[in-house]
Specification:
By secondary structure, this protein is an alpha/beta fold. It is built from 13 helices and 13 strands. Helices cover about 40% and strands about 15% of the residues. Helix 5 runs parallel beside helix 6. The structure holds iron/sulfur cluster (SF4). Iron/sulfur cluster (SF4) binds next to helix 2, helix 5 and helix 10.
Length: about 400
């Protein structure tokens, strides 16, 4: 895979050594068991795959290079480039302003932009409407477009399904930049509706089966269907695509459920299901697949707790947290600073959407076994800082340099 030029501060010699060693020993990436960092009194199990993905490194390289190559020019990012506060703040410190927040609310009105300004499109891509607005101002967005190729692949898949006269069901978070962009691209080719989860999918299926009144669709799915969506006609042939960072098992379950609904409603079989349901495999990206598979590998380990590092608004990171929570006390932190001391940790509660303090997060036993991973937008240097901090709490721990020797 292409190597990108990202600021050295984001890299970690420790993590790079571990990743390289694992790659050498497992070129086909079939082994999802974690790497053990054995400090003695604390054992840290590091996921086989975690951290910056292709799309994030590409976006970081383009953004920092754009700043370097254009001194004196006004540079904007359409919204957060990736969902990581450290990286976004670094760009802000270099004079880059954000035009919108992550929900699409304007921070700087487009009326303040002029043709000579630079606008960087983030890795999630953007909507056709925003693209058109920026182009009408004279901004050359294609020059600074960091849209991830794996997101574009979803748009292409939706287009291919649309060409065969299927409507599109997008499994994604309606407020997420990527899903808004995918929805916009899909809606230009085919009637499109978004479902967030299985609960919404079951409700959508009731409209397919004509168990609910047509008018309820427009209330229940308000803001989630394309203009002119005809619920009676447009749910007769469907295909599913998804936001690249959803939970793989959720997307699979949603696609299987809708497929069965079509089989029952139209008395079909596996042989002729394509009459009503486009046979698409999920459109998760490789990084989501690898990072989630690596968490399943972590969960097979006997441990006391799990720590997941990443931006609180990062979709891919939050799914890693959900997986870990199924088995272990799990702490979702954005940096090592949130581990306040050996007793107290500040962490994000996904379900309450609030920051919590937990006391005595480390058990009184030896060795303490900790699972550790991070999202696709989290620099490895942040993970190394977490490892250093955790190991510092255990007197008599092996120095990190000794632990590293095994991986060099
Ligand atoms: S998570 Fe996947 S789709 Fe998103 S930026 Fe990374 S590689 Fe691209």
């Amino acid at each position: 895979m292409k190597k990108f030029n990202v600021p050295i501060d984001y890299r970690s010699p420790l993590v790079s050594a571990i990743k390289n060693k694992r790659k050498q020993n497992d070129k086909l990436k079939k082994d999802f068991t974690p790497s053990l960092l054995d400090f003695g009194n604390v054992q840290i199990y590091l996921a086989r795959h975690f951290g910056f993905c292709y799309g994030v490194e590409n976006a970081i390289e383009i953004s920092f290079k754009t700043v370097e190559d254009n001194p004196g020019k006004k540079i904007y990012l359409l919204s957060e480039m990736i969902h990581n506060p450290l990286v976004n703040n670094d760009l802000k410190k270099r004079g880059v302003d954000f035009l919108m927040d992550t929900k699409g609310n304007m921070i700087v009105p487009f009326s303040k932009l002029s043709a000579g300004d630079i606008v960087i499109v983030p890795a999630f891509g953007t909507t056709l409407q925003i693209e058109a607005q920026l182009k009408s101002i004279g901004i050359e967005i294609e020059k600074y477009d960091t849209t991830c190729p794996f997101v574009e692949k979803v748009w292409n898949r939706a287009e291919a399904i649309a060409k065969n006269n299927y409507s599109i069901v997008v499994h994604g978070k309606p407020q997420h930049e990527e899903t808004r962009a995918t929805f916009s691209h899909s809606a230009q080719n085919s009637p499109t509706v978004i479902v967030t989860d299985m609960t919404e999918t079951i409700e959508l299926a009731k409209f397919i089966k004509r168990e609910k009144s047509v008018k309820d669709f427009y209330i229940e799915f308000a803001g989630k269907f394309s203009e002119g969506f005809n619920v009676e006609k447009d749910l007769q042939r469907i295909g599913v695509v998804n936001q690249t960072t959803m939970l793989a098992s959720d997307t699979q379950a949603i696609a299987d459920y809708l497929k069965n609904v079509m089989i029952e409603k139209y008395h079909l079989t596996e042989n002729n299901i394509e009459e009503r349901f486009a046979d698409t495999r999920d459109t998760l990206c490789y990084a989501t697949y690898e990072n989630q598979s690596a968490v399943y590998g972590l969960l097979d380990t006997e441990a006391d707790l799990a720590i997941v590092v990443g931006g609180y608004n990062s979709s891919n990171t939050s799914h890693l947290v959900e997986l870990c929570e199924e088995k272990f006390p799990t702490y979702f932190i954005k940096s090592a600073d949130e581990i306040l001391n050996s007793k107290e940790i500040k962490h994000f509660n996904l379900h309450k959407k609030s920051i919590m303090d937990t006391i005595s997060f480390l058990p009184e036993k030896k060795p303490v076994k900790i699972l550790l991973t991070s999202g696709a937008s989290c620099p490895d240097a942040v993970v190394e800082a977490v490892i250093r901090k955790l190991s510092s709490f255990f007197k008599g721990s092996k120095p990190i340099e000794d632990v590293m020797k095994e991986f060099v």
